[in-house]
Amino acid sequence: MYVFLCEDSPEGIFTGVYDAWESRLGHNNISLQIHTGEENYDLFCTYRDVTPDLQKSEKVSRTLKQRLGEEVYSILYQAVISDEKCVSKRHPMDKADAVYKSIVLGLAIPDGSRLPDYLAEPYVHEVFSLARAAGNEAHHLLGFLRFEELKNGVLIATVHPKHNILLLLADHFSDRLPQENFMIYDEGRQLAVLHKKGSPCVLTDASDLNADMITDYSSMELEYQKLWKGFFESIAIDARKNPALQNQNLPKRFRKDIVEFQ
């Protein structure tokens, strides 16, 4: 068995798919695994490190969109950005390997867009479960994410998602705020999406981001925050408080980034 160790990122996993396919070692003899640095190496496996390569990753993305369709590609991409290592307890497997085997199946069947019809395959089922986990969080944040205006007029939103969903959020808000300069900052991963009005979004490393700069709010922003907090408090009805329902509709892990809970 040949094991390709890849980085836990879309670029890393898709590069792993490219290298594994190009190796011509036989799909049944190949396994993709996320490189954690703490692997328990098997004596009877040959390990190969995968170096992320943007060109290889883009080639894989283009092929998947052409052969499997945008919908299936979206599912595979959401599985790749999921933070879950494995969802299935009955058929535990590495996320990267589940994606690789699903791609192999999708390209082998006559109509790759019918991949969802093969949920009986454990690795396809795993991919769809992973994609659902990332997609659900992205759906939540589309409603919970809050932009705040800085003194320079830039809108900024800070998030702490479990999954690496920044680009999913960027696609949504760049379509709805095309004439705004905004930034969505994933503080946990130290990544940010930057959008300049009239231009596409750019994903960038934000490890050296100035913390004071992103909290330098405009006077109008501070006034609106004050008004909104007052409104939030005034409409509450003590006799009808239901913490359990509130936790269900608005999980606590999202609240640190929401003005009225600060």
Question: Briefly, what is this?
Answer:
By secondary structure, the protein is of the alpha/beta class. Helices cover 42% and strands 13% of the residues. The chain has 2 domains: 2-138, no CATH class; 145-261, no CATH class.
What secondary-structure arrangement, pairings included, does this model have?
Blueprint: E1 2-6, H1 10-22, E2 30-34, E3 46-49, H2 54-68, H3 70-81, H4 95-108, H5 122-144, E4 148-149, E5 155-159, H6 166-176, E6 182-186, E7 191-195, E8 202-205, H7 219-234, H8 243-249
Parallel strand pairs: 1-2, 1-3, 5-6
Antiparallel strand pairs: 4-5, 6-7, 7-8
Helix pairs in contact: 1-2, 2-3, 3-5, 4-5
> Averaging pLDDT over every residue, what do you get?
91
Q: What is the oligomer described by this structure?
A: single chain
- The total of helices stands at 8
Strand tally: 8
Organism: Maccoyibacter intestinihominis
Protein name: TIGR03915 family putative DNA repair protein
Pfam families: DUF4130 (PF13566)
If you had to describe this structure to a student in words, what would you say it looks like?
By secondary structure, the chain is of the alpha/beta class. It folds into 2 domains: about 1-140, no CATH class; about 145-260, no CATH class. The chain has 8 helices and 8 strands; from the N terminus they run E-H-E-E-H-H-H-H-E-E-H-E-E-E-H-H. The protein has helices spanning about 10-20, 55-70, 70-80, 95-110, 120-145, 165-175, 220-235, 245-250; strands at about 1-5, 30-35, 45-50, 150, 155-160, 180-185, 190-195, 200-205. The strands form 2 sheets. The chain has a 5-stranded mixed β-sheet, with helices on one face. Strands 2-1-3 form a 3-stranded parallel β-sheet. Helix 2 (about 55-70) crosses helix 3 (about 70-80) and helix 3 packs across helix 5. The relative contact order is 0.09. The mean pLDDT is about 90.
